[in-house]
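Sanity check record (used in CI):
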Amino acid sequence: MLDKVQKLTRSASTVRTDSTALGSNILVHHSRDTEYKQWAETSVNTLSAIVKIFNAQRSLLLSLDDFASAWSTLLEYIEYLAASDNSEMSLAAIKSFQEVLLGRVTQQSMADMNLRERSAGKGNNAAVTSAQDESLYLPENLWVISWQCWMRISQSLISPQPRNVSHQLSQNPAGVFTEKIDAPLKHYIPGAAHLTTILHVFSPLFERVKKKLPVDELRYERVPTILKVFSVDIADFIWYFLDKLCNCDNNDLYESC
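Expected output for Monensin-resistant homolog 2 (inferred by orthology to a C. elegans protein):
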């Protein structure tokens, strides 16, 4: 289903709908006035629903022999949407990534997560254990695969150049191999909501995989570079303009950093 929705989204027209042709009493909102925008919403809703199924039926799905393949396929779709040229799809994909790993995250739970992360930074091991316990169960090898996905999504967010994401599914549940495609180029600047969400995934995910990561993963060009870009200081007067553009609370970004 995700494969079909993705193909229809990529081939959808970006020409604005002429609402007058639909009747004088029909108005189409500017956020949904093209086929592409409408399919973008469908992509977001479809991915969100599948993530909820993965979480609600996690114990049952884990008993399947091909769960690892299904998990990798889901992460590939999430990574593809996260690197898309549509800000709405990108943010929704990152939030889906957060939800499938950590469960449903509310504003209150994000605030609690900030407190635990600050406590963990002060050497409070109980805070780290609490964060791990709240994560949904996954086999260890799938946590490592999820970490690799986190790295690629993070790098696509901070890259100054548009980045094509090679998307090659091994084999979908229907047994049909899909073609190799390139993600559309990114034409927007990720907002604070994008960065805050992906940063909140970092701490509990890193705690899960840190003993299994190769030393090269901690080179400056890898994790440190990503965290340095996320935590760069921004002058106070610039936040005024970012608030107007992003319509979000930038305090969450500083808290997560």
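The first strand starts at residue 166 and ends at 167. If this sentence no longer matches the regenerated tokens, the check is flagged for review.
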